[in-house]
Each structure stands twice: as structure tokens, then as C-alpha cells.
Design goal:
Length: 144
């Protein structure tokens, strides 16, 4: 895949991607995101909460379905993964330990070779945790 994007005139080439995460209990989710992650909604409606961080946004929406948590649903890119994981642990976030072929965490952090080829990095260091609603969230730092 090329590092250059081409606007071929289709609507999605100019669109902004927006993450939406399901929440069975919005108040429980609000508390988790505030107390554990230090994030507060910038807008809210009866059916959802909108968050902004680092120039991006994501929303939690009321859902009767439950997240499977079988894959990363959203990730935060950080400059210092050790400091971020340490601070989030201090706030009560529990990180997943993973040991599968090709991916193994050590103290909650894994090195993933080959990620972010379009960002000029040779890989990523990553860590994963679940929010109060079962969504699997990641924290990643590109390896340059």
C-alpha cells in the first residue's frame, strides 16, 4: 500500500473516521472513562457520550448488545507506553496478558513487528485493557 493517498472523488476519501463503542450502562462507562482514563465527555445525549482527545473523537453509545472484546476496538497512540501503562495501572486499569503465537506481553506490553508501515515505523509496542463495558482498547507506541 502506498504512503500517498489519492482522492479519486469518492466520498470516503475525504471523510473522517469516527469510532463508536457500545455501552450497556452509560453512567458506568462515564465513571470508568473519567476515573480510570481521565477522560470526560465534551457532548452528551440520552443515547451517548462524545469524547475528544489528541485531535480525534470517539463516542460511547447506549446498546443492548455486549462487546465481545475479541479484538481491539479502539487504540490510543502514545509517546511513552511505559509511563502511560504505569499511570493507568495507578488509576486501577488492569492490562491483559497475552501469550499466543507471534504475540506475547511482558508486564502487559508486547512488541509487534511490522505494524505502522505507512508511518515509517518498523513496528509497535502495544498493551490492551477492557473498559467497563467489555470493549477491548489498546495503547500503542510506534517503534521507529
Amino acid at each position: 500500500m502506498s504512503s500517498n493517498t489519492t482522492d479519486d472523488g469518492t466520498p470516503l476519501t475525504r471523510a473522517r473516521a469516527a469510532t463508536r463503542l457500545p455501552a450497556q450502562d452509560l453512567e458506568r462507562a462515564r465513571r470508568f472513562y473519567a476515573e480510570r482514563l481521565g477522560l470526560h465527555p465534551v457532548d452528551e445525549r440520552p443515547g451517548g457520550l462524545l469524547y475528544r482527545c489528541g485531535g480525534a473523537e470517539f463516542a460511547l453509545f447506549r446498546s443492548t448488545g455486549a462487546a465481545t472484546g475479541a479484538f481491539t476496538q479502539m487504540a490510543f497512540e502514545v509517546d511513552d507506553i511505559e509511563a502511560t501503562v504505569s499511570e493507568l495501572r495507578r488509576r486501577g486499569v488492569e492490562f491483559e496478558e497475552v501469550d499466543v503465537p507471534g504475540l506475547r506481553t511482558v508486564d502487559g506490553i508486547a512488541e509487534v513487528d511490522g505494524n505502522y508501515p505507512s508511518k515509517g515505523a518498523r513496528g509497535e509496542r502495544g498493551a490492551w485493557f477492557r473498559d467497563s463495558e467489555g470493549n477491548l482498547l489498546g495503547v500503542g507506541e510506534p517503534i521507529v
